[in-house]
């Protein structure tokens, strides 16, 4: 399932897979917005840089994002304010505003046609719900406290009435895939070694070496720009992996609303996008924890029904989903990896990753180059914030413990391979082994181990995306077991195939 940005993919430049052994100054793992922004910072300062990407440039979460760029965060600066106080939300707004300005300036400087436009951001309520009404007032107060210019409104560009809303001017939208493709072109011009389809299978953190199936890279520094760190990392114990669904539609009229439009009740993020004279309406929503989708629920169908209830939809042309990882204390982790001076990471961006990824890329660039950064202490990846993190930490670890116990002990949904419906996946217990079994449209069965190679939780079937998703730390796998994303290095072990 392709994200809307593929429609405008004007760069089919392919980068080779790594073939052989290389030495470099900085190895960046991950060619999304975080990795490529970091790479640009250090390459422009004269460092030798290599970038390894498991898929294509921007092929992970960056290319599945909404393309919205903003100073606050989706959960609200008011939520952060309760944990961190007034000074911190001011710093969050300032660092994120700088990042949006940096994207605008970089796109202009490098001549990247990524449809960057300044747009207002709206948070709106459609019903008079008292709890959410309070949250809107609290958010307005937090935005003003953080030094942003916001106001309450009773009208928005949406074609349906709202109860009340909040408007924040001078935020932005762009095409995230075209932006990172532009960064990649510039990096290539600067002599950076960019390698696609080069999954990292192992990292030796002590010696700063990474290995793919076809080569090795040794570096002075390594940057884990992989959305969540690969392998086992303490941060994963407090981060919540979530999935969200996206659709892009053409409308029967010409009334495409402009702006970042967040309807809060229930949450749907709506924006318009134009490419080659064709308008699209993009909507994101239906968030749920990875691997914990409600059985039998068609999330794409629910998205489409909601959109059709609000807009004159002519056709739904694109469907996709994306993953996010929220941090335990609400701020991203950006900086040195625990116990290492030469390994850097960035994670915990929740649903606000394009702006955080740019904050991270600039900050990591500064750290590698030995420059001062105003934000290094605030976002320090080794920070210890037990009071602010405890609730999420307990929640996540209870969930992991529950999955480890319950998923192994609960009888499986089907007893035998023959019971797996066509076009579906099910967990089947066979001779003491738990298998993730899929039956294709021809009735042929394939099976991989259901045991996630990361930390041994059992994967769950995701019917919307037809993938195996691990509910513990968000690793996701194709039907044949190969890794799509998440901390797992290795695929689900192959068991049998009748194809
Ligand atoms: Fe950690 Fe699967 S992602 S156990």
UniProtKB/TrEMBL annotation:
- Which Pfam families does the UniProt entry name for this protein? DAO, Rieske
Alphabetical UniProt keywords = 2Fe-2S, Disulfide bond, Iron, Iron-sulfur, Metal-binding, Oxidoreductase
Q: Name one GO molecular function term.
A: oxidoreductase activity
Query: Does the record's keyword annotation contain Iron-sulfur?
Result: yes
Give the record's GO CC terms.
cytoplasm; membrane
Q: Does the keyword Electron transport apply?
A: no
Q: Which residues form the Rieske domain?
A: 412-499
Protein name, UniProt field: Glycine/D-amino acid oxidase
What is the scientific name of the source organism? Pseudomonas indica
């Amino acid at each position: 399932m392709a994200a809307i940005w593929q429609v405008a993919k004007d760069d089919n430049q392919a980068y080779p897979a790594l073939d052989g052994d290389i030495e470099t100054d900085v190895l960046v793992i991950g060619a999304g917005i975080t990795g490529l922004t970091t790479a640009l910072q250090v390459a422009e300062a004269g460092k030798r840089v290599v970038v390894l990407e498991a898929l294509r440039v921007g092929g992970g979460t960056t290319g599945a994002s909404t393309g919205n760029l903003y100073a606050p965060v989706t959960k609200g600066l008011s939520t952060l304010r309760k944990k961190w106080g007034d000074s911190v939300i001011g710093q969050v707004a300032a660092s994120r505003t700088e990042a949006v300005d940096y994207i605008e300036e970089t796109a202009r400087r490098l001549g990247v046609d990524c449809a960057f436009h300044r747009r207002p951001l709206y948070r709106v309520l459609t019903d008079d719900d008292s709890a959410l009404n309070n949250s809107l007032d609290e958010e307005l107060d937090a935005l003003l406290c953080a030094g942003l210019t916001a106001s309450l409104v009773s009208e928005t560009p949406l074609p349906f009435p709202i109860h009340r809303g909040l408007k924040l001017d001078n935020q932005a939208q762009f095409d995230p895939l075209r932006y990172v493709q532009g960064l990649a072109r510039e990096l290539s011009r600067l002599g950076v070694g960019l390698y696609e389809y080069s999954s990292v299978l192992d990292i030796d953190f002590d010696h700063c070496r990474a290995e793919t199936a076809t080569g090795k890279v040794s570096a002075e520094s390594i940057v884990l720009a992989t959305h969540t760190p690969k392998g086992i990392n303490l941060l994963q114990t407090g981060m919540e992996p979530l999935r969200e669904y996206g659709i892009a539609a053409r409308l029967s009229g010409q009334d495409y609303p402009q702006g970042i439009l967040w309807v809060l009740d229930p949450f749907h993020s709506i924006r318009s996008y134009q490419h080659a004279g064709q308008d699209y309406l993009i909507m994101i929503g239906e968030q749920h924890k990875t691997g914990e989708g409600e059985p039998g629920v068609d999330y794409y169908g629910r998205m489409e029904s909601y959109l059709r209830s609000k807009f004159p939809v002519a056709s739904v042309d694109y469907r996709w989903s994306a993953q996010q990882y929220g941090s335990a204390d609400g701020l991203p982790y950006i900086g040195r990896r625990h116990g290492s001076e030469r390994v850097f990471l960035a994670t915990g961006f929740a649903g606000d990753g394009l702006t955080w990824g740019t904050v991270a890329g600039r900050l990591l660039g500064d750290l590698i180059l030995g420059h001062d950064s105003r934000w290094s202490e605030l976002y320090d990846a080794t920070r210890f914030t037990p009071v602010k993190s405890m609730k999420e930490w307990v929640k996540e670890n209870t969930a992991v413990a529950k999955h480890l116990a319950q998923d192994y002990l609960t009888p499986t949904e089907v007893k035998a391979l023959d019971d797996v419906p066509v076009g579906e996946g099910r967990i089947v217990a066979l001779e003491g082994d738990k298998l993730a079994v899929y039956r294709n449209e021809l009735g042929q069965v394939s099976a991989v181990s259901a045991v996630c190679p990361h930390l041994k939780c059992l994967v769950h079937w995701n019917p919307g995306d037809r993938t195996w998703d691990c509910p513990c730390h968000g690793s996701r796998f194709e039907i044949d077991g190969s890794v799509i994303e998440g901390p797992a290095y290795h695929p689900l072990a192959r068991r049998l195939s009748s194809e």
